[in-house]
Amino acid sequence: MSFWIAIMMSEPRRQVIYLKSSEKRMWRINIENTAAAVAEQYGNGVVESVFRRFDAHGLYDLSPSYYSEVFGYMELIANDN
């Protein structure tokens, strides 16, 4: 199964990225791992706040177009020592 992701650019044009099933799985695993690290250090509330920024309650209803951004936020928080 494959997924299309439309990423808004600064211009009114859209760039469409073809995301393979294996790539989607990789993003999900990375987000789960960083979310676990953030929850361990700072609590579940911090993880939930990151998902809320993208109108999601968790990974299960997060749009694939936001995977890289959510992972980036989680990494910043997890590595903020």
Give a summary of the structure in a few sentences.
The chain is α+β, with helices and mostly antiparallel strands and 81 residues long.
Description:
With 81 residues, the chain is an alpha+beta fold. It has helices at 21-42, 44-52, 67-78; strands spanning 3-8, 14-19. The chain has one domain. It has three helices and two strands. A two-stranded antiparallel ribbon has the order 1-2. The longest helix has 22 residues, at 21-42. It is globular. Mean pLDDT is 83; it is low at 1-12.
Total strands: the figure is: 2
**Biggest sheet architecture:** 2 strands, antiparallel
Q: List unreliable stretches of 5+ residues.
A: 1-12
Shape: globular
**Integer-rounded radius of gyration:** 13 Å
Q: What is the string of SSEs from the N terminus onward?
A: EEHHH
Mean pLDDT: 83
Q: What is the CA–CA distance across the termini?
A: 39 Å
Structural class: alpha+beta
Which percent range fits the helix content?
40-55%
Question: How is the secondary structure organized here?
Answer:
Layout: E1 3-8, E2 14-19, H1 21-42, H2 44-52, H3 67-78
Antiparallel strand pairs: 1-2
Core attributes:
alpha+beta, 15% strand, two-stranded antiparallel sheet, disordered N terminus, globular, 81 residues, 53% helix, 2 strands
